[in-house]
Design goal:
homodimer, Rossmann fold, 6-stranded mixed beta sheet
């Protein structure tokens, strides 16, 4: 008995393309003599289809192409996720295809409706948990959340099964892979079954699926694991001898790097872009973004715009050019001073002197934003945003200025982790990011001698407070109890709350923490709760 | 027996302020000799609190202030919505307060999880439907959605009740008031009970609650109705004689005007703004927005920036000034040509000639956006966005350009309805919007002789197609079947799909149709479904 796990990268809405990929992988698995091949949750529609599910013809289209798969795939049992319409309601379902026919459909029972998930907006719950027999083997099916909610499956599957399949579209965040493997291991042990777990891989807007499909023994040991952040076909022979794999912890900077690289390259390619442009200041954030872009897309697809002003230090400016040279990416230098003085002159009609004011600082950022967008409008490059999570949390950024861009690479990356990613990049390709970039105290360089620490707490202090408030929902009082100063915590919380309006107009970005801004955290803008 | 319906405007998160308001209205009702006073759904927390509900201390705070209400309100029975935590889960509940004590809590049974609603993200369902006795009267409670889902209540309340209360936070859209009153009327008739319906009033980010609380007789006749779009206290004496009220249809332009006015004034005041600034082109959209602002906030709180370019026609420019004069609002004139040529010069480093290109058009819009934001950064005015739904649907607008602003007044208003609102405004204050503004063919004036109809179908054709696609989820084939040309429909659909990325970074705006952009319509950006 050979089972293949097809860890594929589906594209949301590309039902035809996904269908073709499923058939292709089905053939590959058959060629490797697999008896069964399993595909991720909603492999046919892509995940999450969101409000496409409200279109009546979307589920019809799923059915049409599922039949094509059934017709094409003979001589192998195929298990794949699709959107099922039945009796006027939708199910997040899994088709069991055998000998050219859909022989059964399993319907997801536990529908997640928290975090980034909205499944109860669309789907009804299944209520049947069949046991399937193939030759001398028995197996059960489950879809993603089904095995995450408490002891549900452990208690239901009283009869010993030979194996349990779980097909998933389980989004990545730091620590998630270990957490997930722990859950699968416990399930395997409790049910005394092999568990074969097939996860989606790929980036879809703000989320990234890491793949990392796996097979656990009835003793709860990890026997095989598919690639991280890549498509893979894992073929597993139940009859063969298997040594358990040792779990090695992956350092967060590396996991984050890999997630961001995939999230970025998929956003670019799935949205039909080829090239990107980055505003490069010579600071750490844009240095990391442009390096990631060069790794993800190839240096020939990355362009930098260096946009100095009178407040740009010589060393920052030189660093910016050096980074381009190190990466081998092209760049242009467009100064912003003359446009700024042109604004300054014309704005005198309605404003007092703007020199050295917040207005002037924001104008500089907005001129840079306009230049990036003018480049994008002319050549079609996607503008990458470089704002990190610490900044975005506190609103230490200019709306329509440094907040422009189609995709925010560091949107969910706290500043302290940005430094760790920079070090990781320098580990893989030494000398990519100059040491002076890493060492220089962070500054927006929008006025003389400006430092981030003039406006924000030091990042070593800020980031843990932000985590407690944003990711863990701690109250003011609870954070203070953790040992942080009251004034600091109050200031941080009020900055986070007051800048919801900015974030709402910011670019998408890749979720890598347990709670990202975006649909993962749905805060009202009009909100007087301050605790 | 006298019952008071307190149709109040709660503020999300302002639990202390809402508590004080509830107590104040409780006293008012008592003064008018009411035996019972009822308040809207989640009157104490505001609706919808969204992810504030995930904070453990949010529900604790609800409990604390609910006890304060109970303590303060004696001599009247008080029924009000609040967030209840019990056994580690949350309920959308309704407290029955009598003689200083919380005597019972009713938990919402039907939780809406569609459209703008996410209640299953937060709340568990109640499962008890008690019958309450007050003196010789019996009554039942229900919360909003409870009476919207099919025949649920009709079948459950087998025993005849004297009256049924429904407390709601039911968002407005065009036609909703009639739809809602029909549902209440049917419920009253089927249960042969008086139905007393208390709705929230006020604006909260993208939604507006219209109030329009009502009382229906056991024969399904409308006996009393509270104000539309205003706070109100409706006191109803069961013993008195009541003539049914005749339902008069309200014209959409008027309903829309009232909803927008309230949505705007509440967004401004609840977010602690006082003044707004509008970029006034002399076109119909900005003319309607600035008029609405003057009605909603008072002319002294509205400022216009007129920002002509070489492409601005003399008549448009004159109209812009005339509108300010008509409304009595202040304005400044800031030309954009010299900044544009400054950009043009500096961009030569990296771009070819930008004259008469999309890049130049977008730059003009972005310069105007920057000027508005510079004014806002200096004086603290909220920038009002003037984009209408037809434009926003098709992406006929510039990101970070005419899409800037904290709040989009016309975001959910199709262009054809913008004209109707202009006429309505001229009906209430004749001559507000010059006839030349209404008559001139729409143009962005970003190049010589530009017209909207160069890029878009005529609005009379475009708007119905957009409605079918966006609000009604019709497919390409279904829209063509309705009698529209295939090429037209294809073009419209592809514009709507391709511009999801722009809308995601656009300002909030007030929902007035059955499906607005925002959390009402959750579409992936990365999406290859084109049908």
């Amino acid at each position: 008995m050979k089972i293949a796990i097809a860890q594929i990268n589906s594209v949301v809405g590309d039902i035809k393309g996904n269908c073709e990929k499923i058939i292709r992988y089905g053939f590959k698995a058959k060629k490797k003599n697999a008896d069964i091949v399993i595909f991720p949750e909603l492999a046919l529609s892509g995940y999450p289809p969101e409000d496409l599910l409200l279109k009546r013809h979307f589920s019809d289209c799923n059915k049409e192409f599922l039949l094509k798969i059934a017709k094409a795939c003979k001589g192998i049992m195929l298990i794949a996720g699709f959107v099922e319409k039945n009796g006027g309601v939708l199910y997040n379902s899994c088709a069991v295809i055998h000998d050219g026919k859909i022989v059964d459909v399993y319907r997801k029972i536990k529908l997640p409706n928290y975090g980034v998930f909205d499944e109860k907006r669309y789907f009804s719950s299944g209520d049947v948990l069949p046991i399937y027999i193939l030759g001398v083997f028995s197996f059960g099916l489950s879809i993603c959340e089904d095995i995450w909610q408490g002891d549900f499956f452990n208690s239901v599957w009283r009869k010993k099964l030979d194996f349990i399949f779980n097909i998933s579209a389980s989004p990545f965040h730091l620590g998630k892979i270990a957490q997930r493997e722990n859950i699968i291991s416990v399930l395997a042990k409790k049910t005394k079954s092999f568990v074969l777990y097939c996860n989606m891989v790929g980036g879809q807007d703000e989320i990234v699926f890491d793949g990392t499909s796996s097979i656990f023994s009835p003793q709860g040991k990890l026997l095989a694991r598919a690639k991280r952040f890549q498509e893979d076909l894992l073929v597993f022979d139940l009859a063969a001898e298997h040594e358990p794999i040792k779990k090695e912890p992956v350092e967060p900077a590396r996991e984050a790097f890999e997630a961001l690289r995939l999230g970025l390259s998929d956003y670019v390619s799935k949205n039909n872009f080829k090239k990107v442009v980055v505003g490069l200041s010579g600071g750490i954030d844009s240095a990391v973004v442009i390096s990631l872009a060069a790794f993800a897309l190839g240096r020939e697809n990355v362009h930098a715009l260096i946009m100095p002003s009178v407040y740009t230090s010589k060393s920052t400016f030189e660093d910016a050019k050096k980074i381009c040279d190190n990466l081998g990416v092209s760049f242009d230098i467009v100064g912003i001073d003359s446009v700024l003085s042109s604004y300054s002159k014309d704005l005198k009609v309605c404003l007092k002197e703007i020199k050295r004011t917040k207005t002037e600082e924001n104008l500089q950022a907005r001129i840079r934003g306009n230049i990036l967008m003018a480049f994008s409008n002319t050549y079609g490059h996607l503008v990458l945003n470089t704002g990190n999570k610490s900044e975005v949390s506190c609103g230490y950024c200019t709306l329509y200025g440094d907040m422009v861009g189609g995709f925010g690479i560091l949107k969910d990356v706290p500043k302290t982790l940005v430094y760790d990613i920079a070090s990781y990049i320098n580990d893989i390709v030494p000398g990519t990011i100059p040491f002076s970039v890493i060492r220089r105290p962070p500054s927006a360089e929008l006025r003389p001698n400006q430092k981030d620490s003039d406006s924000l707490p030091e990042y070593d202090l800020l980031d843990p407070v932000l985590k407690l408030y944003i990711e863990d929902d701690y109250s003011l009082a609870e954070i203070i109890k953790k040992g942080y100063k009251k004034n600091l915590v109050k200031k941080v919380i009020s900055m986070v709350d007051a800048n919801e309006y900015k974030r709402r107009q910011g670019p998408l970005g890749i979720k890598i923490t347990s709670r990202a801004f975006g649909k993962d955290r749905r805060m009202p803008i009009t909100n007087k709760f301050m605790q």
